[in-house]
Amino acid sequence: MKITVLDAGSLGDDLSLAPLSEFGDVTVYRGTLPEEIAARVADCDVLLQNKVKITREVLSHAKKLRLICEAATGYDNIDLAAARERGIAVCNVPGYSAPSVAQVTVAMVLSLATHLPDFNRHVSSGTYSKGDAANYLVPVYRELAGKTWGVVGYGAIGSQVARVAEALGCRVLVCREHPKGEPNEVDIDTLCRESDVISLHTPLTEGTRGMIDARRLSMMRDGVILVNVARGAVTDEAAVAEALKSGKLGGLGVDVYSVEPFREDHPFYAIKDAPRVSFTPHMSWGAYESRVRCLNVICSNIKAFFEEKVQNRVDLL
Q: Which element (helix H / strand E) includes 18?
């Protein structure tokens, strides 16, 4: 059996893919350009990828392919309909990154709420050492205790963020795809109106695409902190950038973008150095422990598939 890894670099150069060799001959590419995909998928039985787009056209070249392993939870980069038509199984890795993404989410919120970069610059620039004040309290920051934290998407990540928010003394509101009638569940508009902090953890679907748009941004409280660690396209990025510029947003943390990496013509490029911004390069999922878990589940998915067991099969949904 031949296993092809299209973009091992996206999993980190420190992660050994040796466990895959248990299942067959492994060919590893650090990255794959669009014009290289056809040749690289032509003779493999199992395809492993993380960021590469697997389109209908790509699959037309994959004559032997039986299984696609998405090295992530989200699988919107795979044409599932085309895979189903060709009888190709598709597995994802649910839940593996929850601790990592939750940690980065909370770190972003705390940094933005407390203005830590500003205070750090005050010291690292030498200004503090040259002054005569023992303490410095500009810009003003406020406690999160007693504030309302809205969590959009309440799966493994969102629920963990909610627990931390509650531990910090926040009132938590939740907007989930399938409400369960719990007291803190609200619709998205109510969450936007009542929250001081909003973190996004929802998958990208036709229902969530662009859900944080100019209209919903206008509903939000002045000075709200918005953090997106879900998918870039769940927000209208141009509208979000304008809300930051206008001062509507008190802080903006983003780890995911509709185009990755975003270029100079992207709405966020002009605000990337703004003092109330924390932009990171789609790294929130990638703590070392998280990546090890991901690889372990991929190996388990491959084993289950060839033992004719159903495990993490998103093509069957």
A: none
